[in-house]
Amino acid sequence: MNFLKNLDVLIVSTAFGENTAAYRRLSYFARYLRSKGLRVSCIGFIGISSFGIIKPSRECYSVPFFISTYHILGLILNAFLSLLVATMILILRPKIVILSVPEVHPVIATYLGCVLTKSKLIIDIRDPEEVIIIHKYRQGFSGLIARIFKEVHYSIYRRASAITGVTRTLVSTLANMIRRTVHLVPNGADLEIFKPIDKVKARGILGLDQDYFLIVYIGSLTTRGYYDVLPVLKAIRKVRERTKINTKLVVAGPIFYDSEKIVEEFRDVLCYMGILDVKDIITLLSACDVGIVPRIKDPIYNYSIPIKFYEYVATGLPVIAVANKESELAKIVEENKLGFICEPEDKVCLENTIIALATDNSLLNELKKNVLAFRRLIDRRIGAEGLYRLIKELLQE
């Protein structure tokens, strides 16, 4: 019980499934804060989804449960289910609670727990989910519920001890919407873990063909949400028809919804590796020639720099960014010459980019040099240091 009374930081998140990129970020922050002498614990949710049950890391307290669904009623149900978080905060009595968004359904319960225990609350926002939900549900009952949640949550955000965001665009947007200061705590990759290894060796370990030009995508195999791998697969097939270049898209991650049929339909150009642990992800990235981020056209996601981008760079991979040229991701890739940008739905650009990279070794090597030079700037430690400074200030108040 002594430990409970002296808990400094409690991290609350639905993203503690051990094979997710979001978990790698939060667990890194937890380890870094512990290295600074803080007592840190976490609360994770048991998630029920279309592809099974997602259990949080064993290092976290588990609260049952949340249902992964796009239906607006799921948000209401999950908000009620998450009320146990308030009870957990009452038991643990941390000095500071960090709530990582998304998902947004634990917001009310976490705030309630902090009010009852007089804990300070940091809202860590990776995606502005309230805005995205309103964007999706614009009319009728669903639209009304989405707007109510946004107003309630933003009222809580204004009362929080601090708000953080992961990109400059997101920080600026949130500050305007919430009408308060938002601190930049950038994302990144753990450079001590994500390091390039020999490509030939990596392909040998995974049994990948040494003669192929391999494009890698780490993430959900889906055509919904903010990623769509279908245009990439069609472009690769077109390239093979036009040039006879041996190239494939290698994917590691969960299969969402009806995307099982994609694996069958594109078996000639797709190598699906399943869900990999961190060690195998590093091996896979090192085995490939270039990483791809297949964003959709909707400009609502222009704020985002996905974790996969950082992990590609950390392992020395040039990047193909399928993204709006106004997006923060596209600007970083272009300004630092880390790869190529193709607007979503620009099929010709994607095909020509793949051909150029697959046939011009000097171009590929030049981009790799740029990526390795840029690598030190995406160290996840930079964000962890910023978060620690913020926590230290709050503890001293």
What does this molecule look like?
- With 397 residues, the protein is an alpha/beta fold.
- 47% of the residues lie in helices and 18% in strands.
- The protein contains 17 helices and 14 strands.
- Helix 2 (21-35) packs across helix 17 (380-396) and helix 9 crosses helix 12 (278-287).
- The longest helix is centred in the middle third of the chain and has 20 residues, at 140-159.
- The protein starts with a helix and ends with a helix.
- The model has no long low-confidence stretch (mean pLDDT 91).
- State the distance separating the first and last CA atoms: 25 Å
CATH architecture of the largest domain: 3-Layer(aba) Sandwich
Count of individual helical segments: 17
- Please tell me the total number of domains: 2
Instruction: Give the overall shape, derived from the CA principal axes.
Output: globular
Counting helices, strands and paired strands, the structural category is alpha/beta
Do you know the CATH topology of the largest domain? Rossmann fold
CATH H-level superfamily of the largest domain: Glycogen Phosphorylase B
Secondary-structure blueprint of this entry?
Blueprint: H1 2-5, E1 9-13, H2 21-35, E2 40-49, E3 52-54, E4 61-67, H3 72-81, H4 84-92, E5 96-101, H5 107-117, E6 120-125, H6 129-136, H7 140-159, E7 162-165, H8 168-178, E8 183-184, H9 199-206, E9 213-218, H10 230-243, E10 247-252, H11 260-265, E11 270-272, H12 278-287, E12 290-294, H13 307-314, E13 319-322, H14 328-335, E14 339-342, H15 347-359, H16 361-374, H17 380-396
Parallel strand pairs: 1-2, 1-5, 2-4, 5-6, 6-7, 7-8, 9-10, 9-12, 10-11, 12-13, 13-14
Antiparallel strand pairs: 2-3
Helix pairs in contact: 2-17, 4-5, 6-7, 9-12, 10-15
